[in-house]
Design brief:
This protein is of the alpha/beta class and 248 residues long. The chain has one domain: Survival protein SurE-like phosphatase/nucleotidase (Stationary-phase Survival Protein Sure Homolog, Chain: A). It contains six helices and 13 strands. Strand 1 (2-6), helix 1 and strand 2 form a beta-alpha-beta unit.
């Protein structure tokens, strides 16, 4: 059993080694991660330039590209055989609700699913300094369950862990994606040469407190496990749009 571990926080994120320690009893763990922070890169691929892969030690590689590049490299030539599972994370910060569409962490797990293997994205809902030991142990337990039960094709798991002492974690909830209230802004600045430049910024995310969602669970101190499907087709709209008579 070979696990491909990646992230979007970069190769020096401490969570990578914590995951390696927790997963090693289950099989070979290969880390292939970006050489720098690639947060919010979503499912982007590096297509317009070559990228380089650096081997730091046995089964520990950095890529000067995106999290998706890391998974693609792992499946198409970097390793001597294809990994059996992809674990992306543990991200330093939450990935809930609509933010999964921006997340490099979730995108890496999506790519693993596209490669045909069970895949899990994991995030810790804080940006404060953390040791990740207890979260990594939970990931190992979840991986065992996935290995025992499997995942349906084209499905992945998105996990968010609350930031609190492990003894105060309330339990685990199977959830749906929440909904974020967006308050992003475009911040305009002027550089020393008088040229305008911009930052996308804003306040911390605000979530609609709906019971059964990932945000609701994490806010209450539960670990949120959300099954995601890659088929985004709106089945109800298929029938309704047949009435549009677009050929007329």
């Amino acid at each position: 059993m070979t696990f491909l571990v990646t992230n979007d926080d970069g190769i020096f994120a401490p969570a990578l080694r914590r995951l390696r320690d927790a997963l090693s009893p289950l099989g070979r763990v290969v880390i292939v991660a970006p050489d720098r922070d690639q947060s919010a890169t979503s499912h982007s691929l590096t297509l317009h330039r070559p990228f380089r892969i650096h081997r730091h030690e046995e089964d520990f590689f950095s890529v000067d590209g995106t999290p998706t590049d890391c998974v693609v490299a792992g499946y198409h030539g970097l390793l001597d055989h294809a990994p059996d599972m992809v674990i992306s994370g543990i991200n330093h910060g939450p990935n809930m609700g609509e933010d999964v569409f921006y997340s490099g962490t979730v995108a890496a797990a999506i790519e693993g699913t596209l490669q045909g293997v069970p895949s899990i994205a994991v995030s810790l809902a804080t940006r404060e300094l953390s040791d990740f030991v207890a979260p990594a142990r939970f990931v190992s337990r979840l991986v065992r369950r996935v290995l025992d039960s499997g995942l349906p094709g084209r499905q992945l798991l998105n996990v968010n862990l609350p930031h609190r002492p492990w003894s105060e974690v309330s339990g685990v909830r199977i959830t749906r994606l929440g909904s974020r209230v967006y308050r992003d802004t475009l911040i305009k600045k002027v550089d020393p040469r008088g040229r305008d430049y911009y930052w996308i910024g804003g306040e911390d995310p605000v979530w609609e407190p709906r019971e059964g969602t990932d945000f609701f669970a994490v806010e209450a101190g539960y670990i949120s496990v959300t099954p995601l499907r890659l088929d985004l087709t709106d089945e109800h709209a298929l029938e309704d749009m047949q009435k549009w008579n677009l050929e007329a």
